[in-house]
Amino acid sequence: MTERPGAASSPAVSIVGPIAGSGTGSTTGNVTGTAAPKRARRARAVLAAPPSPEALAWAQALPPQVRLGTSSWSFPGWEGIVYGEAYSDSKLARDGLAAYGAHPLLRTVSIDRSFYAPLSVADYLRYAQQVPDGFRFVVKAPASVTDAMLRAERGEPIADNPCFLDARLAASEFVTPCLEGLGAKAGSLVFQFPPLPERILADPLAFVERLGAFFDALPPLPSPPPGDTPDSDDVWGPCYAIEIRDACLLTPRLIRMLRERGVRYCVGLHARMPDPLRQAAALALLDGEAPSGPLVVRWSLHGGFKYEQAKAKYEPFNRIVDEDPATRTALAELAARYAIAGQPVLIVTNNKAEGSAPLTCLALARNIAAACARLREETAPAHEPGPD
């Protein structure tokens, strides 16, 4: 599953190298008899890297409703960080998710391959079976319903897409199989819209109205059982979200339409979009005085880089190359605000954000834990002095 272009006192931690030792422990030998195929299959399982003390400490420090993760998981460069041995990207795409889900900090992941072609119920079910309870998936809708253009192999537009914003197709090829396969582990169903053609951007009102009609026609999402609290670690319903790549569409009109339909705005950090502070202002308009729904963030690309530039600079994605403390701080403050309000937080990072998505998650965990502690202290009621 290789990515493709289109996102209190604290323990000390290093963020420029692996956060876990690389345990090998594989064995070889001659095996005979009928049991050999089973032993061979077991030997091919992807091993998880032992978590570092820092990763364990930060995982415990985070509020339970904060889930951090990465965009996809099939990266051989994560050996010693997430995976215990060297594996091919195809091996990790097929069998690596269980080892990924064993990492204490990685409690969500973005399924990106669904953007390029619809997945079946069996595909989603296989993913869900590999991760623990409490894990949540961020899933990208197929481009067949979110891209206004049909594209050639290299991505160049060749014709209008007749299935653009086709709610019936979105329901049958995305929403229904996703929910049936992932079940309670479905977190956010994200409709990411690639850059739209000028003819659509020239009339943003018409696009917002059409988008509203699209969400009106989608199947309603399951709700948590009655009596469950919003800050429960394991029980909360999935949400629809949109991610845009045209900053001119980020308007009060769009946000009002989303609010009326209960659709979340996904903070998409990408060179084409404003910084997280401006996008946080859109969330404030969506939610009002206090957070009223999940926070969904996809940190896709370091500011100022194109996809291929970042990929070439950062491969094999085994270390932080370009730290972005400003973005980390902004996301940490935003996540702390939502977590303390009892809302779910889903943040997925890309290798192209800083160089290594799991190490970015470690840095974010540190910042979020510190921001939560600071916000709790600031909002705690003052103690009045007692009588003499």
TrEMBL record:
Pfam families: DUF72. Residues 27-37 have a biased composition (Low complexity). Gene3D superfamilies: Protein of unknown function UPF0759 (3.20.20.410). InterPro entries: DUF72 (IPR002763), UPF0759_sf (IPR036520). Residues 1-37 are annotated as: Disordered. This is DUF72 domain-containing protein.
